[in-house]
Design goal:
By secondary structure, the chain is of the alpha/beta class. Helix content is 38%, strand content 18%. Bound molecules: pyridoxal-5'-phosphate (PLP).
């Protein structure tokens, strides 16, 4: 009996190795990592350059607290990230993962308004069907109903508006543009309802990941959001923890929306899983205000800017540049979209195939015409995951796609180095897993 407080109750295989796009367990079974774990492993496993960078940094220095010292890998990583950051972004704050990055973003945003003499700004607005992390601040702004429910008495008050989820919510008589404007305008209505002078920021994932399954916004939506934020002096905080760092084919997902945030968060693909690392990136305007005011961001963790984590992320990001892996994401992304469309385009139980680059989702439905979801009690998503694992495939299915309770999807987010042959293996195994999971369901009324 394990003494580890595991996430779930089932028996898990023991991961002992990794090789490019595969994870290997203690029985020698190989699993094609079609989800990079949770959209993490962008370079796959065992990349010699990253392994060497981690070894060298760990050998040079275990740890130096950031209130005493800066360190070279952290400075170099910040320089590299800011060189390619969205317009106006000028500072990087390194933490150990996505939730910590989101906590830092929320606190920096609040402190900014205190520094500029607007302490009455206290509200965050975010979207339903989003995920921003599991710590209390990040969980509060997140719109994943299932994750929030039992902790709701502990969560800071946050206001949620509709996601931009055209497959389900665009009306038949509405163009994409009209739909995008309608849902973006919910932000303005909420800001006006709360009082513009009380709102700190609006938080969104440019491409919604775990909660809704690679949902992209319709063209024009984020531009409208940016306009609304600007009109009311509200900060735009984009969570690129999952969709960022190249996963959608550009380094930042927001680049494809034509907007730049005031604050953004990144993690997963930043270090590619070689070390735990995340970052909050903030605009010069915010940094200037803090410098001119109290002088420092009032925050911190023991492992801020850990040198080994920064060295790993630096090597990952240099490798992505030098091996031109964003080109690979775009090319393999096209292959993946085509393979998924061939395999599932006419599938009776796949209602939507969506996403961008190597960040794709399938929404599973009981019937396509009515977009009727499966009964949530059947936990189809968990069955798909188990059937996929039994076939040596890791994918990332989730339930609650539609409203936190109903709906099932499968997220696919393989390493950027996946080959066309592996994409074939992925779709074959996923097809078998989906069919086996559906065939195993008890008869429906
Ligand atoms: N934000 C998004 C969009 C995420 O997908 C996640 C994790 O899946 C997080 C934040 C939280 O990141 P972490 O699990 O590293 O704390």
């Amino acid at each position: 009996m394990s003494h580890v407080l595991h996430r779930g109750s089932g028996q898990l295989p023991v991961a002992v190795g990794g090789e490019r796009c595969h994870v290997i367990d203690s029985d020698g079974r190989r699993y094609l990592d079609a989800s990079g774990g949770a959209a993490v492993s962008c370079l796959g496993h065992g990349h010699p350059r990253i392994v060497a960078a981690v070894q060298a940094q760990a050998a040079a220095m275990a740890y130096a607290h950031t209130s005493f010292f800066t360190n070279e890998p952290m400075e170099a990583l910040a320089d590299l990230l800011i060189e390619e950051a969205p317009a106006g972004i000028d500072k990087a704050y390194f933490v150990s993962g996505g939730s910590e990055a989101m906590e830092a973003a929320l606190k920096l945003a609040r402190q900014y308004f205190v520094e500029i003499g607007q302490p009455q700004r206290r509200h965050f607005i975010a979207r339903r069907q989003s995920y921003h992390g599991n710590t209390l601040g990040a969980l509060a702004v997140g719109g994943n109903e299932w994750r929030r429910r039992q902790f709701s008495p502990l969560l800071i008050e946050t206001h949620h508006i509709a996601p931009c989820y055209a497959y389900r919510d665009r009306r038949d008589d509405e163009t994409e543009a009209a739909y995008g404007r309608r849902v973006a305008d919910e932000l303005e209505a909420k800001i006006l309802e709360l009082g513009p002078e009380t709102v700190i920021g609006f938080i969104a994932e440019p491409v919604v990941g775990a909660t809704a399954g690679a949902v992209t916004a319709v063209p024009g939506y984020f531009e409208r959001i940016r306009e609304i934020c600007d009109r009311h002096g509200v900060l735009l905080i984009l969570d690129e923890v999952m969709c960022g760092m190249g996963r959608t084919g550009t380094l930042h997902a927001s680049a494809q929306e034509g907007v730049a945030p005031d604050i953004m968060t990144i993690a997963k693909g930043l270090g590619g899983g070689y070390q735990p690392i995340g970052a909050m990136l903030s605009s010069r305007r915010i940094d200037d205000a803090i410098r001119a005011g109290s002088g420092a961001f009032q925050h911190g963790h023991t492992y801020l800017g850990h040198a080994t984590a920064c060295a790993a992320a630096l090597a990952v990001q240099q490798t992505i540049r030098e091996e031109r892996l964003l080109d690979a994401v775009r090319a393999r992304g096209r292959d993946l979209a085509q393979a998924l469309t061939e395999r599932f385009g006419n599938h009776a139980h796949v209602g939507d195939i969506r996403g961008r680059g190597l960040f794709m989702g399938l929404e599973l439905v009981r019937d396509r015409a009515g977009k009727t979801p499966f009964d949530p009690a059947l936990k189809l998503h968990a069955r798909v995951k188990a059937e996929a694992m039994a076939r040596g495939l890791m994918c990332y299915p989730m339930g609650g796609t539609i409203d936190g309770r109903q709906g099932d999807h499968v997220l696919i987010a393989p390493p950027y180095i996946i080959t066309p042959d592996e994409i074939g293996e992925l779709t074959d195994k996923l097809g078998l897993a989906v069919e086996a999971a559906i065939a195993g369901l008890p008869a429906q009324p």
